[in-house]
Write the structure tokens for this entry.
Amino acid sequence: MTAYHCDLAWLGGEGAERDVLVVVDGDRITTVEEAVAEPPEAAVRLPGLTVPGLANAHSHAFHRALRGRTHRGPGSFWTWREQMYELAASLDPDSYHRLARATFAEMALAGISVVGEFHYLHHGPGGVPYADPNAMGVALIAAAADAGIRITLLDTCYLQGGIGVELDDTQRRFADPDVGAWDARASALADSVPADSPGVRIGAAIHSVRAVDPPAMATVASWAAARGASLHAHVSEQPAENERCAEVYGRTPTELLSEAGALSARFTAVHATHLAHADVGRLGASACWCCFCPTTERDLADGIGPSRALRQAGARLTLGSDSHAVIDLLEEARAVELDERLARGVRGRHDAAALLRMATEHGHASLGYPDAGRISPGCYADLTTIGLDSVRTTGTRPEDAAAVAVFAATAADIRHVVIGGRVVVADGRHTSIDVAGALGHVLR
Amino acid sequence: MTAYHCDLAWLGGEGAERDVLVVVDGDRITTVEEAVAEPPEAAVRLPGLTVPGLANAHSHAFHRALRGRTHRGPGSFWTWREQMYELAASLDPDSYHRLARATFAEMALAGISVVGEFHYLHHGPGGVPYADPNAMGVALIAAAADAGIRITLLDTCYLQGGIGVELDDTQRRFADPDVGAWDARASALADSVPADSPGVRIGAAIHSVRAVDPPAMATVASWAAARGASLHAHVSEQPAENERCAEVYGRTPTELLSEAGALSARFTAVHATHLAHADVGRLGASACWCCFCPTTERDLADGIGPSRALRQAGARLTLGSDSHAVIDLLEEARAVELDERLARGVRGRHDAAALLRMATEHGHASLGYPDAGRISPGCYADLTTIGLDSVRTTGTRPEDAAAVAVFAATAADIRHVVIGGRVVVADGRHTSIDVAGALGHVLR
């Protein structure tokens, strides 16, 4: 049993509560008490604002190595993809383990307690499977454990280079021979993880309507349904994807996924940027999650998705740092509101509490952890403490604390991170990894 | 004489140069030498990437007290303005000095060596002048000196509450009785500053077409022309301003300013968000500066200005943190490119070197310091060093250094700041002010 005494804690409202005592047993919160002015002597004091652990619902860990290297010069999403493929071609299970370990540790420093890893870099050069065909996925799972964060590995089905397009050399590393082979490989990985594993879930992903044909989509959707697993897909990130889909199938990507049985409360539409009006209704009516990755969507010139309309239709939003040009879920949260303001010319389309819920409760639930992302008895003991003594955050009144967290703080303000009851970050430092050193080493 | 040895320095290109020795005499750079592998023993080592001092070309210092307090709930620019007015009503020269000193010190920590302070909060309650009618301006100038940064005080003419609208109670504190009174007051302030002052310039500002009528605009423009002073104006920040201007004058704000003789290479159009096509040509043809304040323009739901079109037409861009919800010129720089990507769907409209020039050379020049913002002999000795050992910036190759500075680093990565030859920030700490403490005190 450990007691944490939070100067301020965000418990779901617009403001924050004072003197909140959170008692933790093992990896779970047992009690939460407000207004405890005189905490027990043994309580660990958390100065600042404590929020639930943040959830990074969409990650491609290896993209971290592209930071700062792919922003120069003109181009588009498609020219960026060429640079990304070049990097992908260079990794093996060992080097990917080192890169992902450092990247996930950077996430821990940013207050992230779970990552949804959209994993498609499965095989060796030329598409030759490793001795363990899940060696890359296993490396990612080990990296998350090393970094002290939980992972939902979204094992991604990838079968073709585009609609009616052959796989190129790099894409062969992403692809299984057919959806049956994907099923066998993903099943083997899922069966290797104990059902009660505290830190690992295996979900599924349909890479996109570009990379997976409709019958295969249906197979992946059935696999996820049979296992009650999370199912993610990139949806309408770029207009070109919509155009090609309409040309070949006479449908939007969302319609196609809907017909394949993919939409449900376990489904996450990643990006959901260029949606038809009816798509918004479809995603909402199925109570899907929509994962916005605004810093990536800015970087790749994707556009601004209909975040407010999706929420109004019944969808729930989550957040991802995706390509990791930036790893800062607070920046992602404010960007959802700020980009909506740019697109619509009105403020306050998502309030601070709604944005924090995207970054916490919704993200965890979308990754198969409904019992996380809230500071509440029975939930995972994930506590992320934001310093309120930096030049960015000082002078904060309790009633403004949620707004300061979302609109003014950055990842650099994260001071203390408890994940599943373990202290992973103390005083801004990872407790077991020299993160900048590890990143510097793998990026050399 | 002090020699600084920069591991990497950005000297204007796409990449950075290695082992750059910068020799400083008094407040100026005397020599810059590249590839000095063995620097003199007495040289001060600057690890990381050194760039010229950053220029914050548009600031309202008192808005800093609104951070975190005005982002909640729905509303618009206009409802935000009410909250801003409430704060303005509470300040006097002493309290404004304390607030501005802490705010400018936060700017120093963010690597900013000069601020363009768009100053309109001139008078006491009810519009009664202080004993010294420039007491507020003097307080701002003193605050910048305390913080160790240079200032261009843009003394702002403000005469009416809107086109054909009376001043309200708060606005009376902004307004002079007529443009003659503005001229007398601004002249007294300008005459009190020695022509060779190393740290202070007095410029002029036309608050906006809302607050200044065309004959008065012409007077302010003449004042600035006669003194060779910088002239700034808020231009087309909101569609409502354009609509009212068209209704009453049958012209765009830019046309009106042009007819008043305001446009020139000393003029800065602040925001320049909702421009008519012909306005872009006008601002370009006059080689005006256009100051983008993207984090504020996001926050206030202003929209995305035509940054690329303006540059193509001949205008040069500068950057401002304006309302100070965020003080991070690197974030402003990347936002110009990223918001342009959102608006146009293409990457690489402004490369990293162009964005860094906006943040440095252009900003200084627009504020009347053409001899600053470059690491070059004869220029002000302003050196801002970005750490390349943080989790955000580690692993940077010299050829990517400018891109990393703009697209990945944040104000939290600024380690060392020299302004006019004086060390103002060392190891991330202000050398004379406990900035977070000072901010915490004034924001209480």
